[in-house]
Amino acid sequence: MNPTIFRSGGLRFFFFSREEARLHVHVAGPDGEAKIWPEPRIELAHDYELSPPDLKRALDIKGSGRMKTGKPGKVTSTAELSNVSTHGMWLLVDERELYLPFDQFPWFREVPIAQLSRVERPTPDHSRWPSRSTRSTIRSGIPW
To answer: With contact defined as beta carbons under 8 Å apart, do 78 and 119 qualify?
Structure first.
């Protein structure tokens, strides 16, 4: 999952949840991507063929006040979809990442990612996906 933080001048600024502890942001342009560390000073971590003008604009964006850093926010969901492959999906639950293989949970195999990401956790031992195309509730077999 890679939520968009904001867009500016054809560049998309986003992050991957649970990628690494150091604060960073990814930037995608039409020709490539880059990874930037905004603290303690703005610094290029990796450049994956982002054009030089786009890279310069990405590095200058923090100075413009558009991207400000601060303390990490509070957790807004106690369960979230963190990754999907052809073999299964990973859920982030209470700071732990759990793998749900599709051979054990076959009803999720053909479900679109947009529906998989609607996971809800109404109680500590219960997760559910409110969708008609998935089995609506999972209770057992997942070690919360």
So the answer is: no
